[in-house]
Design a protein that fits this description.
By secondary structure, chain A is an alpha/beta fold. Helix content of chain A is 42%, strand content 14%. The mean pLDDT of chain A is 96. In chain B, helix 1 links the parallel strand 1 and strand 2. In chain B, helix 2 packs across helix 3 and helix 5 crosses helix 15. The chains are: A alpha/beta, B alpha/beta.
C-alpha cells in the first residue's frame, strides 16, 4: 500500500461557473493505476466525483483523461504521487466526464457493397494496424490542426484510410478525406505518440491518403510546384544566393584531435536558406573534434514529397543520397535538419547510421562554452522530438550556455506541407506558438530545425536561433575571455 | 424527478454489447427501434474486451454436428439442445454478416477466415482478429448500427421493466442527472450481459453487474441455472488492482503451457488427453487445486508460459496480451505470466425459447443474460457466436411482434420513485456494500462451494440487501440501483447453487460426493428460480 496526493480538476455544471482543482490524499495498492485512484476517491472520500470507465484493461477507450497534462487511459497509466488529473480537452459534462459523442459521430462508417467482395489476406494485413483504434479520442485532443481548422482529427483519417483499403466499401474515401482537410495535418506526430495503441496515423493513414489523393489529382498546387522544383533542380527551394555546399570544401577538419568522422547531409533549407546556421554548426563541430565530409552531389531527401503524397521520384532521390554516402565508405551520417533526419531515419533503409547534430555532440561531449546572460526557451521541432525521440540532448547542451525555460512541446505549424499549402493554418499555429513564447518571458527562442526557425521568426518578436549558433556564441565569449586573460 | 417526455417505440433493446447491438440492427428492419445503453454504446459490456474468438463451422472437414457435440459435452449436457442446434447452425451465417459489414478477421494465406484451436473442441474453429476479436466485432456492429434508423440513448441506466399486468411494455431508466424516464415498447429485449462483477475477482467490464437478471426476476420472469458461473482459468494475479484481468484462452490455443511452482505441467494429472486445451471448468479447477495445495507462484497463481513460442507469433497473434503485460512490467516473450482463475461468465440466465422469448409476454432476452445455450460450462468462442446468433433472433422476433396498447401501471412508477426518494435519504455508502458483497461471493460462491459457504454468503447478501443505500445526489441514484441489482442477482446465484445438489461442469459442490453418474446421465436438469417458484428439473420428467 502507498499513500499519495493527487489534484483533480472538478466541475459541476449545476453549481460551478468554472472548474477548480481539488487535492486528495489517499492510500492505494502498489501498482495501482490512475483509475484506482479515482475509484478510491469516489468510494472513500467523495461519491460525487464523476469519471467514465468500463473495461478497465485498455480495450474500450472510455477512461481517457489528462495526467500531468498528457492524455492517457486512466486504467493503464500507473498512478504517481503529486499527479494532476484533468479531463480531455473536449466539452466537459462533469468533472472528468467529457462529451465524446459529437466527436465519435464524425468517424466514418463503412458503406458496404451489395455483394460481399471477400478481401484478400494482403488487404486484411494492410487494414489490421489501422483497426486497433479504441476511439478514446486522445489523438483528437492533441492534434494542433483540430484546434485551428475544421480538420476532424487523426483517427478520422485513420478510418478513411482503413475504408479506402477495404474492397467491401463502396464510398470514395479519398475524396471524402480531401474534403475533410486531409492537407491540414502538419505531420507533427503528436497523435501517434499519444495513441494508447501506438497507431502510426501520420505515416500509415495521412501520408497514404495523400498519395492516393495525388493519383486522383488532388495534390495542392503549391505542393506540385515544390515537386516540379525538386524534379528540375534536386532541391525543394529556389536558389537565392550562394549555397552552403558552394561555400565549403568536401572535408572540414577539426581544430584538435579527431574524435569521429561523419558525413554531412545538409538538406535544402540549410543549404539554401539558413546557411549561416549550418556554417555555425560546422564551426561548433570543428571545435569538438568532429571531422565532417560533405559530398557535393547530395540532393533533397524527399521529405516534402513523402509528406504530401508525391512519391513518383522518391526512390531515385533515396538511391542517389544513399549512394553518395555509401560510396565514400561513410558509416555515420550527420543531419541537422529535423525533417531530413527523421526522413533518413524513418523513411529510408540506410547502410549507415544517421545521427542528429544534438546526438553527435552529446555522444562525443563538448568543450564547455562560456555562459551567456540569456534567458531562452527551446522549441522542440516535431521531427526531432517525436520523429527521432530527441528530447534531452539539445537541453543538455543548451543548459551549459543559457538559462533555459520550458514551454509545452507543440507544433509551430510549418510541417507537413502546411506552411505552403494551408498558409492560414500555419499562421494560426505560428501565432499560438508566439503566445507560448511570450508567456515564458524568454529573450531568445532556440530550436533545431530550419522550418521551425524560419516559421517561428515570423510569429514572435524574440530572436530565433539554432542550437549551434547559441553554442558558438558561448565559444566566442569564452575566446574573448581567454584573450583578455592572456593580455593580463 | 419524473421526466415529462416518454420514449415510445416498437422495439426497445436494453444493452449495447454484441447481442444488444446485433438485436437492434435486426429489429430496426421491422419498426422504430431504440437501443438504451448504460455506457457509451460500443464501449460497454464485455464484447469489446472479448479477446479470443468466435466459433463457427467454416471448413468441410468440420461439421455443425461436431460443434454441437463439443458444445454439449463441454456444457456437461445441461444445455438446451434446441438452442445449441441453433447456435452451431446459424453461427456461420452470422459470421458472414459480420464479414459483409466490414469486419477484419484474420485470414489464412488462402484468403479465407483463419481459425485456431480452443479448449474442448475437436476442430480448430475459433475465428479471430488477433486477440481483439470482440473489439473488431463491436466496431463492425456499431458501424452497421449507424446505417440503420435505430435511435441510441447513450448513458441511460435502465432500473426497472415497465409492466402492464403480466406483460412487459418497456422500461424505466435514469438519465445522468437522475431523472426517471419512461420507455414504452411493444417488445423489449434484455441484452444486458453478465454479472460476474458480483465477485471480487472478475474479468468483466464495469457493466457486468447483473442488472438484467434482477430486472427480469423482479418483473416475474423465470431464470435457469443461475449457479453456473464460469471461472476463467487464467486471470492476471498482479498487481493487486489488475487481478482478475482476462488472459485469453488464445494464449493456450497458441501453445501456452501451464506450469506450477515445481515446473510441472500439472494438467497431465487432470486431463492428460487435452492438457492445457481441456475445457475451462476443468482447467480452472486444476489451477485452483494446485494453488490450494501450495504449488503456487510468488503472487498466488501458476505459470502460463509462452516463452518457447517464436516472438513473431506472440507479437502477431497476442498483441493485446503482450501490451497489457508490458504495461505491468512483464515481457511475456521472455517471462512466464502468473495466472489464477477469475469469475468470467454466467451460463445461466433468463429462460428463453428459440425465438428468444422469456416467460414474460413482451420480454425477449439474448446473449449472456439468457440461459440454456452453454449448459454447465461454456466453450471459449461460443459466447461471441451466441451474441450474434441470438441477438439476431431476438431482434427479428421482437421486431415481428405486433403492436400493442401500452398502459403502464401508475403505481409501479410511483413505487419506483419512492425507492429512488429513499436512496436520497439513505445512510450507507453503496461502495462499501458492493465490496462486502464481492468478497462474500468470492469466498462462499466461488469455484468450490458447500451448502454452508453458500448459506453464509446468502446471509451476508440478505443483510446487505436490507441496508438503506445512500445516493449523495440524484446523479448517484443509478449507482444505488445497480448495487441493489448486484445483491439480488448474487442471491439468485447462491439460492440456485444450493438447489443443485450435484457437482456438474463449473458448479462444484464440495459437500456432496462426486456424482456416480456421468454428466450425460445425470438425473438433474435446469435449476429454475422466479418470484413464484424455485426448484430443479428432473431428467425425463420435465418440470
Amino acid at each position: 500500500m502507498k499513500k499519495m496526493t493527487v489534484r483533480i480538476l472538478r466541475f459541476d455544471p449545476e453549481t460551478d461557473r468554472e472548474s477548480h482543482w481539488e487535492t486528495y490524499t489517499i492510500t492505494v495498492n502498489d501498482g495501482a493505476r490512475v483509475l484506482h485512484v479515482l475509484h478510491t476517491i469516489h468510494d472513500e472520500i467523495d461519491p460525487t466525483l464523476e469519471y467514465r470507465y468500463c473495461c478497465g484493461s485498455g480495450q474500450c477507450g472510455s477512461c481517457a483523461v489528462r495526467v500531468n497534462g498528457e492524455p492517457t487511459l486512466a486504467c493503464m497509466e500507473e498512478a504517481r504521487n503529486n499527479s494532476s488529473i484533468e479531463p480531455l480537452k473536449l466539452t466537459v459534462k462533469k468533472d472528468l466526464v467529457v462529451d465524446l459523442i459529437p466527436t465519435l459521430e464524425t468517424i466514418a462508417s463503412i458503406k458496404p457493397c451489395d455483394e460481399l467482395v471477400m478481401p484478400k489476406r494482403s488487404e486484411i494485413d494492410a487494414m489490421r494496424p489501422l483497426k486497433d483504434c479504441i476511439e478514446c479520442l486522445c489523438c483528437v485532443t492533441v492534434c494542433p490542426a483540430v484546434g485551428v481548422t475544421e480538420f476532424p482529427g487523426p483517427t478520422m483519417m485513420r478510418q478513411e484510410m482503413r475504408l479506402a483499403l477495404d474492397p467491401r466499401d463502396r464510398a470514395d474515401r479519398v475524396t471524402e478525406a480531401v474534403k475533410d482537410r486531409l492537407f491540414s495535418c502538419t505531420s507533427c506526430q503528436a497523435c501517434w505518440k499519444i495513441c494508447p495503441k501506438g497507431i502510426e496515423m501520420p505515416a500509415k493513414a495521412i501520408e497514404r491518403l495523400r498519395a492516393l489523393a495525388n493519383r486522383k489529382g488532388y495534390t495542392l498546387p503549391r505542393h506540385q510546384e515544390v515537386a516540379a522544383l525538386i524534379k528540375e533542380t534536386g532541391r525543394s527551394v529556389p536558389r537565392t544566393g550562394p549555397t552552403f555546399l558552394e561555400q565549403v570544401g568536401e572535408v572540414i577538419e577539426p581544430y584538435g584531435p579527431v574524435k569521429a568522422t561523419v558525413g554531412f547531409f545538409i538538406g535544402c533549407m540549410y543549404n539554401m536558406r539558413q546557411v549561416q546556421s549550418a556554417l555555425d554548426a560546422m564551426e561548433v563541430l570543428r571545435r569538438n573534434g568532429i571531422r565532417v565530409i560533405i559530398p557535393e552531389e547530395q540532393v533533397c531527401c524527399g521529405s516534402p514529397l513523402i509528406r504530401t503524397g508525391q512519391l513518383s521520384i522518391i526512390d531515385s532521390l533515396k538511391q542517389r543520397n544513399i549512394e553518395t554516402f555509401r560510396s565514400r565508405g561513410i558509416d555515420t551520417v550527420l543531419t541537422m535538419c529535423a525533417g531530413c533526419g527523421s526522413t533518413l531515419k524513418n523513411d529510408y533503409t540506410t547502410p549507415f547510421e544517421v545521427m542528429d547534430f544534438n546526438e553527435i555532440l552529446t555522444k562525443y561531449g563538448i568543450e564547455p562554452p562560456a555562459r551567456l546572460p540569456i534567458r531562452a526557451t527551446y522549441h522542440d521541432p516535431c521531427h526531432l522530438l517525436r520523429g527521432q525521440g530527441i528530447h534531452d540532448q539539445p537541453r543538455k547542451l543548451l543548459r551549459q550556455v543559457v538559462d533555459l525555460v520550458e514551454m509545452p512541446s507543440i507544433c509551430c505549424g510549418s510541417g507537413g506541407g502546411v506552411r505552403s499549402g494551408v498558409p492560414e493554418e500555419a499562421a494560426a499555429l505560428g501565432a499560438r506558438r508566439g503566445e507560448d513564447i511570450a508567456k515564458t518571458g524568454a529573450e531568445f527562442v532556440i530550436t533545431s530545425c530550419p522550418f521551425c526557425e524560419f516559421h517561428i521568426s515570423g510569429h514572435t518578436d524574440r530572436p530565433v536561433r539554432h542550437v549551434a549558433t547559441v553554442l558558438l556564441e558561448g565559444y566566442q565569449k569564452q575566446d574573448r575571455k581567454n584573450c583578455s586573460c592572456k593580455k593580463e | 424527478m419524473l421526466a415529462d417526455e416518454t420514449v415510445d417505440c416498437h422495439t426497445l433493446v436494453i444493452g449495447s454489447g454484441g447481442a444488444g447491438v446485433r438485436a437492434a440492427i435486426e429489429a430496426s428492419c421491422y419498426g422504430d427501434t431504440v437501443l438504451v445503453s448504460k455506457t457509451i454504446a460500443g464501449k460497454g459490456g464485455c464484447t469489446p474486451m472479448a479477446e479470443g474468438g468466435y466459433n463457427a463451422v467454416l471448413r468441410e472437414q468440420d461439421s455443425c454436428g461436431i460443434h454441437e457435440e463439443d458444445t454439449l459435452k463441454g456444457g456437461a449436457y445441461l444445455n438446451d439442445p434446441e438452442l445449441v442446434t441453433i447456435l452451431v447452425n446459424e453461427s456461420p451465417q452470422r459470421m458472414h454478416d459480420l464479414l459483409c459489414w466490414g469486419a477484419v478477421f484474420d485470414f489464412t494465406e488462402n484468403d479465407v477466415v483463419a481459425q485456431r484451436p480452443f479448449g474442448g473442441q475437436q476442430f480448430p474453429r475459433t475465428c479471430y482478429a488477433g486477440d481483439r476479436t470482440g473489439h473488431e466485432m463491436m466496431t463492425t456492429l456499431m458501424e452497421r448500427l449507424d446505417s440503420t434508423n435505430a435511435d441510441v440513448m447513450q448513458e441511460f441506466t435502465v432500473i426497472e421493466l415497465l409492466k402492464d399486468d403480466d406483460s412487459v411494455i418497456g422500461a424505466m431508466a435514469l438519465d445522468e442527472r437522475g431523472n426517471l424516464i419512461l420507455l414504452k415498447a411493444d417488445s423489449t429485449i434484455l441484452a444486458t450481459g453478465g454479472t460476474t462483477k458480483v465477485y471480487d475477482i472478475s474479468t468483466n467490464s464495469a457493466s457486468g453487474t447483473g442488472d438484467g437478471f434482477a430486472l427480469g426476476y423482479r418483473a416475474g420472469a423465470e431464470l435457469i441455472d443461475m449457479e453456473m458461473i464460469q471461472f476463467h482459468p487464467t486471470g492476471a494475479v498482479y498487481p493487486y488492482d489488475a487481478r482478475g484481468r482476462l488472459v485469453t484462452e488464445a494464449v493456450r490455443g497458441e501453445g501456452g503451457l501451464l506450469l506450477n511452482s515445481l515446473g510441472e505441467r500439472f494438467m497431465k494429472k487432470y486431463d492428460p488427453e487435452r492438457m492445457e486445451l481441456s475445457t475451462r471448468d476443468i482447467v480452472a479447477q486444476a489451477i485452483a487445486t494446485e494453488i490450494l495445495e501450495g504449488r503456487n507462484t510468488e503472487h498466488g497463481g501458476v505459470f502460463l508460459d509462452v516463452t518457447h513460442l517464436p516472438r513473431e507469433q506472440i507479437e502477431e497473434r497476442l498483441p493485446v496480451m503482450l501490451e497489457q503485460f508490458l504495461k505491468f512490467g512483464v515481457d511475456i516473450r521472455t517471462t512466464p505470466m502468473e495466472v489464477a482463475p477469475t469469475a468470467h461468465h454466467i451460463m445461466g440466465g433468463l429462460r428463453i425459447t428459440p425465438e428468444c422469448r422469456t416467460t414474460l409476454p413482451g420480454l425477449f432476452a439474448c446473449g449472456e443474460v439468457s440461459g440454456g445455450v452453454h449448459g454447465a460450462n461454456r466453450l471459449g468462442g461460443n459466447a461471441l457466436a451466441e451474441t450474434q446468433v441470438f441477438g439476431k433472433r431476438a431482434g427479428e422476433f421482437a421486431g415481428k411482434s405486433g403492436t400493442r396498447d401500452k398502459r403502464h401501471d401508475g403505481t409501479q412508477v410511483s413505487s419506483t420513485l419512492g425507492h429512488l426518494e429513499a436512496f436520497l435519504s439513505g445512510s450507507v455508502n453503496p461502495a462499501l456494500v458492493r465490496k462486502e458483497l464481492q468478497q462474500a461471493m468470492w469466498e462462499g460462491a466461488g469455484i468450490f462451494r458447500t451448502a454452508s459457504t453458500l448459506e453464509k454468503t446468502l446471509k451476508t447478501i440478505d443483510r446487505l440487501s436490507g441496508v438503506e443505500l445512500r445516493a449523495e445526489r440524484p446523479r448517484n441514484l443509478a449507482e444505488c440501483c445497480i448495487v441493489r441489482n448486484m445483491c439480488l442477482t448474487a442471491s439468485l446465484i447462491c439460492r440456485s447453487a444450493l438447489i443443485r445438489q450435484e457437482s456438474r461442469g463449473a458448479h462444484i459442490r464440495k459437500d456432496i460426493p462426486p456424482p456416480v453418474w456421468d454428466a450425460k446421465n445425470s438425473p438433474f436438469g435446469y435449476t429454475y428460480i422466479s418470484r413464484v417458484r424455485e426448484g430443479i428439473e428432473r431428467r425425463g420428467t420435465g418440470s
